[in-house]
Amino acid sequence: MFDVLFIGSGQGAWNGAIPMSQAGLKVAVIEEGLFGGVCSNRGCNAKITLDKPVELMRNIEQLQGRGFDTVPQINWPDLMAHKHEVIGRLAASNEQKLVKANVQVIKGHATLTAEHTVLVDNTEYTAEKIVLALGQLPHRLDIPGQNYLHDSTDFMALTKMPQRLAIIGAGYVGMEFAAIANAAGSDVTVVLRGHQPLREFYQPYVERLIISLRNRGVKFLYDQTIDSVTEVADGFRLQGANQFALAADYIVDATGRLPHVDDSGLEVLKIATNKNGIEVDDHLQTNVPDIYATGDVVAKSQPKITPVAIFEAQYLAQLFTGQTTQPINYPSIATTVFTSPRISQVGVSPTVAAQSPLQYTVETFDYSEDWFRQVQNEADGSLTLVFDQEHILVGAVEYSNEAVDTINGLLEIIELRLTHEQVQRFIYTFPSLQHSYFRKV
Ligand SMILES: Cc1cc2nc3c(=O)[nH]c(=O)nc-3n(C[C@H](O)[C@H](O)[C@H](O)COP(=O)(O)OP(=O)(O)OC[C@H]3O[C@@H](n4cnc5c(N)ncnc54)[C@H](O)[C@@H]3O)c2cc1C
Ligand SMILES: NC(=O)c1ccc[n+]([C@@H]2O[C@H](COP(=O)([O-])OP(=O)(O)OC[C@H]3O[C@@H](n4cnc5c(N)ncnc54)[C@H](O)[C@@H]3O)[C@@H](O)[C@H]2O)c1
């Protein structure tokens, strides 16, 4: 009998399994696919590998006539081969990480059969505690011609960049892929059901991102309902209400991801779920004692991203090894859409702050006036900061190529509620990004 049995081996599992095992618990991880789950094999890591040349290309573009005379072109087949090389080895190394930490690795599809029992290929495994780290699966539009639609995994394995790419949905996946495919030379059209791309992000910066992508040739079609996809002589045809029609060579369905709750026996134990995932209490415990859940499969208001899955897995390690009995207490969470420019944000949104002017002040800094950004000729960037009544930084959002580094840098100031005087004690390297913002805090 194991002390803890994880179903799923993604970020929401191994970041808990390893410290639990190192603390002396008998731990096993069951995985039916690639070890490391989505982020390692077909999510964050693959995406950032495909984005790297885009980021470099945009930086070089900004310096045309300022030290550079040409912009390099992306060689997609070479880039894809590089992605396969970098990402292809991760599953095996993720598995080895578990083995080295003395975690038992079990391969196959797990089904819960009783409160402490899981079945994998006719073998029963029992455990004191079971952790469901099942992740999410791509949502697929339920329309005729559904089989012609592709998901994020398909896109990130494309050997040839399609000439005409249609993307349905303008969330994280839709926008990031639009930026990459556009830089790689594809004629990209993003089709939106509503009128608000990247709903969770600060909208004035989303609007600037849309303008920037439009200027590069990406088309955005708002308020469209796709009814069907058909194969035609030279590709595919999307059709929708009010005579909407669009021709494309390849279509990505980026309409979101759904919690993976339907094939692991949750119903046998009547584990409570809703459309957002598995319901848990403030200790990540499901309605069934000794069964817990972490990561994307959890029904939660926090963003379904890797660092949150890691935080939850590490919390369970502390809980199960007796280091804490406290409820999970999420810190400030930075989120980023990896377009170019990027939008990165953390803490109180300027939109929320603007609704309570007595409680918050909001300040915006335009990078066209910042000498450090002028060095790289980055004119289209801004940082917005939110301060509370004590003038402590409580929120920040940046639209720029370096937004991730700025927001990660400001994260500790926000989380630790550092005062202006405390921040002034940091002696950063000069010149550096930190120097371009620390005086503003
Ligand atoms: C295209 C894309 C890009 C992304 N980019 C980013 C990013 O840049 N930054 C970021 O923070 N997040 C990003 N994410 C989100 C991130 O990948 C997820 O938040 C993270 O992978 C969640 O980890 P998890 O462990 O909860 O689930 P997963 O990684 O989904 O792992 C779940 C695992 O459980 C296994 N499993 C499920 N059921 C069973 C069963 N019954 N038996 C055995 N095994 C089972 C699955 O095979 C899977 O391997 C991205 C996601 C996508 C799709
Ligand atoms: N940078 C990152 O951190 C990152 C990157 C990629 C994915 N992710 C994670 O992966 C998950 C999935 O991302 P995603 O972009 O697929 O989902 P999402 O929820 O961010 O976006 C889905 C989009 O599809 C649209 N949509 C939904 N139903 C539709 C329909 N019937 N017709 C047309 N449009 C429709 C929505 O309005 C939305 O714009 C999220 O949990 C996200 O956190 C994170």
Helices, strands, pairings?
Layout: E1 2-7, H1 11-22, E2 27-31, H2 37-42, H3 44-62, H4 76-88, H5 90-100, E3 104-107, E4 110-114, E5 117-120, E6 123-132, E7 136-138, E8 149-150, H6 152-155, E9 164-168, H7 172-183, E10 187-191, H8 203-215, E11 219-221, E12 226-232, E13 235-240, E14 244-248, E15 250-253, E16 257-259, E17 273-274, E18 277-278, E19 291-293, H9 306-320, E20 335-337, E21 342-347, H10 350-354, E22 361-366, H11 371-375, E23 382-387, E24 393-400, H12 403-415, H13 420-423, H14 433-437
Parallel strand pairs: 1-2, 1-6, 2-3, 6-19, 8-15, 9-10, 9-15, 10-11
Antiparallel strand pairs: 4-5, 5-6, 7-16, 12-13, 13-14, 17-18, 20-21, 21-24, 22-23, 23-24
Helix pairs in contact: 1-9, 3-4, 3-7
The chain binds flavin-adenine dinucleotide and nicotinamide-adenine-dinucleotide.
Characterize the structure shown.
The protein is an alpha/beta fold and about 450 residues long. It folds into 3 domains: about 1-135 and about 260-320, FAD/NAD(P)-binding domain (3-Layer(bba) Sandwich); about 145-255, FAD/NAD(P)-binding domain; about 340-440, Enolase-like, domain 1 (2-Layer Sandwich). Helices cover about 30% and strands about 25% of the residues. The chain is built from 14 helices and 24 strands. The strands form 6 sheets. Strands 1, 2, 3, 4, 5, 6 and 19 form a 7-stranded mixed beta sheet that branches. A 5-stranded parallel beta sheet has the order 8-15-9-10-11. A 5-stranded antiparallel beta sheet has the order 20-21-24-23-22, with helices on both faces. A hairpin with a 2-residue loop joins β17 (about 275) and β18 (about 275-280). The mean pLDDT is about 95. Bound molecules: flavin-adenine dinucleotide and nicotinamide-adenine-dinucleotide. Nicotinamide-adenine-dinucleotide binds near residues 141, 172 and 174. Nicotinamide-adenine-dinucleotide binds near residues 172, 193, 194, 304 and 336. Its EC number is 1.-.-.-.
